[in-house]
Amino acid sequence: MGHAQKATEFNKDEAKVNWHDKALWYVREKRDKSAHNVQGWEYLRQLGSGIKANVLSNLDKYLIQFETNAKNNGIQVHWASNAEEHNTIINSILEKHNAKKVVKSKSMLTEECHLNPFLESKGIEVVDTDLGERIVQLAEEPPSHIVLPAIHKTKEDVDVLFQEHLNTKPSGGNPEYLVGEARKHLRDKFLNADVAITGVNFAVADTGGVVVCTNEGNADMGVHLAKAHIACMGIEKIIPQEKHLGVFLRLLARSATGQPITTYSSHFNKAEEGKEMHIVIVDNGRTEQLSREDFRASLHCIRCGACMNTCPIYRRSGGHSYDYTIPGPIGSILSPGKDLKKHSSLPFASTLCGSCSNVCPVKINIHEQLYKWRQIIVQEEKQPIVKKSILKTAGVVLSKPKLYKMAGKSARFALKHAPRFMIYNKLNAWGKARDLPEVKHESFDEWYKKRRKNE
Amino acid sequence: MTNSAIKVGLFIPCYVNQLYPQVGIATLELLEKLGVDVYYPEGQTCCGQPLGNSGYEQDSKGICNLFVKNFNDYDYIVGPSGSCIYHVKHHFDILEQTPEVKRVRNNAYELCEFIVKILGKTDLGASFPHKVGLHKSCHGLRGLKLGKCSEVQGEHYSTEEDLLKEVKGLELMALNRKDECCGFGGTFAVFEEAISSKMGKDRVQDHIDSDVEVLTGADHSCLMHMEGIVNRNKQPLKVMHIAEILNSSL
């Protein structure tokens, strides 16, 4: 099922769509206020974009530098070329520590690699400790947003879910009560965890350390209590120097939620004494994306989610309609590179309004890349026969003025004189919720000709 | 250069030609009032945008070449549709960049931008005593940068507002969401029907909630989509292209 069908499903509950749209629009407006209060915001975006472009052009060098420095700090560094290797490496580290209980702080990479089901199949308990992540984990759903994973759920939904899984009392969706209960539940998981897994927001090449940004402090809590810390990162998470955090930390939280900075920016540079720290560096299709000149800049992404919050389609179709780990506009330019056939509807789930490119803190030309993927998809994937023949025919008719004139005239004649049932039926998607334009008695061409005659 | 020495090729987009002749007429009359030397090249069809945006760019080369052939002889190419002009300027890169192609791409202007930027006029002597809501089309706003969009930091400006503010009796109403997309999006309107209609419905409602009597804009494709919703739901809103307002002298 493509995006359009899933979006149609989501739109069956209009009140929910309105609520979802408003919740995310609120975040978008908060982002505007917060970003526009920073003098030189657009320059800061330019800097962020430039640093990322430099990183991607020198990625080999930076990755080796990062590995060397990390190893010098006593961190064990692992390389995974794909999801399977990533999962296997993590499992072997867990086996070494005889770990049965793992706490994880939010990591889209481990979602991408489907780490949770893999570890669960080995009898390991994995608990996502970010509250939103925990909510979707209990609901057995994937996150619907990369920063606000449970944004598709109302507080009433969470109330019901917690009653079922955490034995809470019905509270009518009281946020204070529900958060308090979640805190108790998670504290127990933190205290008993063997190993903590985190994602990485920034990996600093010249220090060999990683930075993790959270609002709940759950990354720190997990890492400080467990025997070992495994940090998982995509190869594009590198920044050259620590001072560049001054650019990215300012961009990230403002773009994501409108906060000046995340509550916690945690720097992990080496393991605590008596403990272990591992970093798993993952490719999983990134090198291939890097090789595609038109789409390379998609790897600038710092996973702030601003393009989702601003996207009028995302807001009204929900993250699950994209059926990819990273939903929304950025996901729609990343996913075709992973599996063109499976994700071929996503670049079309956009009006190309361009708002995503404007909010992107690292200036990814998202809407232009969507346009480019469309051209590739039409060439390489089988297209619906009706769409294909209409557009191919249009290509011919519109390049021949005489044919065009005839076609225009007969179409207007048909529109004007056909009975309503012939025009408004289930074959006409336009006419489902919209009227067709009222046909005038002449075209502009015809009017102009008459006028010239009378001159 | 006096206006009469400016040779303008009038570009009337295919759907405006076929379905909204009044918009073409208003555009032509407006340009004539401004004293420029307007020509309407016969044999013009389309800019190729519907194909390009649907992924059929390669099949649109004949259309694009015809466009260049039709409009090569003019100082400026002016059309009442931001998105078509955007397509000419940004997506004719699929053609070999001959001097003709480059010239046409450089000289293509959306109507409002041409009036304000090239002719340097904002007061066109129009009068339109109504409460008006301006829908800023995305391709005009974010593509051609006819105004500052809400995402970007900087001083406010808007080419269409500059023109509407000079219209006598016209009251420009503030919208809740200044520049949200209407959801038309070309073939998106059909292949993502549910979202497209919902977006249009929300956009129309914003105008109604803001006491707008007449919804206008510089891109009639957005207007066609929203008018379809207004008519279907019998909503108390009139939809008119900005050229019609700027050309009125009630």
From TrEMBL, chain A:
Name recorded for this polypeptide: Lactate utilization protein
Which GO BP terms, alphabetically?
lactate metabolic process
**What's one GO MF term for it?**
4 iron, 4 sulfur cluster binding
Record-annotated 4Fe-4S ferredoxin-type domain positions: 291-312
Keyword annotations from UniProtKB, A to Z: 4Fe-4S, Electron transport, Iron, Iron-sulfur, Metal-binding, Repeat, Transport
The record's InterPro entries line, in alphabetical order, gives: 4Fe4S_Fe-S-bd (IPR017896), 4Fe4S_Fe_S_CS (IPR017900), FTHF_cligase-like_sf (IPR024185), Helical_ferredxn (IPR009051), LUD_dom (IPR003741), LutB/LldF (IPR004452), LutB_C (IPR024569), NagB/RpiA_transferase-like (IPR037171)
Q: Which organism is it from?
A: Hyunsoonleella flava
Please verify whether the record's keywords include Nucleus. no
Question: Looking at the record's lineage, which domain of life comes first?
Answer: Bacteria
The yes or no answer to whether the keyword Metal-binding is present is yes
Automatic annotation (TrEMBL), chain B:
A cellular component term from Gene Ontology for this protein is: cytosol
Q: Which PANTHER family match?
A: LACTATE UTILIZATION PROTEIN A, UNCHARACTERIZED PROTEIN YKGE
Kindly give the InterPro entries that the UniProt entry links to this protein: Cys_rich_dom (IPR004017)
Where is each Cysteine-rich domain found?
8-88, 132-226
> Per UniProt, what is one GO molecular function of this protein?
oxidoreductase activity
Q: Give the organism, scientific name.
A: Hyunsoonleella flava
Protein name (record): (Fe-S)-binding protein
